[in-house]
Amino acid sequence: MALGICNVVLFTRVIWGSTGILEYRELKARHESLQNEIDSLDAQNLSLSKEIRLLQSDNKYVEKVIRQRLHYVRDNEILYIFGKQ
Question: Residue 61: exposed, middle, or buried by beta-carbon count in 10 A (0-12, 13-18, 19+)?
Answer without folding.
Answer: middle
